[in-house]
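Retro notes, structure queue

What went well: the backlog is down to a handful. What didn't: a couple of records were mislabeled last round, so from now on we paste the full input next to the output in the thread. Example, using Pyridoxal phosphate-dependent aminotransferase from Pontibacter mangrovi:
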Amino acid sequence: MINYPTSKLPDVGTSIFTVMSALANEHKAINLSQGFPDFNCPKPLMDLVTKYMREGFNQYAPMAGMPQLRHQIGQKTERMYGYQPDPDTEITVTSGATEALNAAITAVVKPGDEVVLLEPCYDSYAPVIRLCGGSPIYVPLALPNFSVDWDQVKKRISSRTRMVIINTPHNPTGAVIAKQDMDMLASLTSGSDILVLSDEVYEHMVFDGQQHYSALQHPQLRERSFVVSSFGKTYHTTGWKVGYAIAPPRLTAELRRVHQFTTFCTATPFQLAIADFIEEAQHYLQLPDFYQAKRDLFVELLRQTRFEAVPSAGTYFQLAKYSGITDAYDLEFAKRLTTGTGVAAIPVSAFYHDKTDHKYLRFCFAKSEETLRTAAEKLAKL
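Corresponding output:
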């Protein structure tokens, strides 16, 4: 009999996104759980992919990414944030933002290191930290607006802290980190060797006249940060898995050591198509208005239900409190909502290491108006 090794992640099961999407498919429910649009990407972008495929650009791309795309990322970053990273030494194209996050953590976190996480948080961070032999150190965001309590962050920083991970706009809550928050983070890490991983995949989805403030805009943070972005979110192409990481040369070199043995490179025709399409800046500049209209519609529709929703400040997610409907545990309520009502959502406890339940569900509103209205009609029957 084979003596199989013990699991490195014995308490980690199938992702909640996979679970809820499978349940939605099984029961033919409207899937507002997993974060993907139900509408297509721009046709000119699809046409560019086809063009490059037909022209024969179907082999390996350079490990760091196609030069054309890295150059355009540098130009776009300068336009948005006033800083132009070097395409050769500071920009790496990855197979989705999740790969970039994995590579950044794996590159620098060693056994015994601690990484500060703000909860609720995206579920990929902690498992990678643990696989590296590090320890996630959790700091809860402050309710009701899920703001950062920097005094609590300071208390959790120690001599073993290797990294602080932030996410803005924030998944799952939709909260947005302001410049003063970045100033606090810079102050807390000043004079130390602590690195920052800034997950900014929803950078173009900030509402109500607010602006996304990137770690790249803060000189003190920029020199110690990995900043991760996603073309999947920006161009409605989550299935293409094209993201990128920007970091100082020394950090980029370490990230690439991991990246080259993870995926090596990302699909060539997608990279070339995106490099051309980036020049159509109106697409990403109009995303705040595009998604705010969807948010406003969904929040208005929720007012016709028994859910309570404070409009999301960013991302394409909306939290809704259901304590006025039931006191059931959020995972059980989410499953019941999927199987009985026909609408799938994500229980927010899935984003806490100890499954803290504040009676919130996360809905994705990156959907057509028809989808949102139909979902709301079902929710109103509760």
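Agreed that this is the format going forward. Reviewer comment attached to the example: The chain is about 40% helix and 15% strand.
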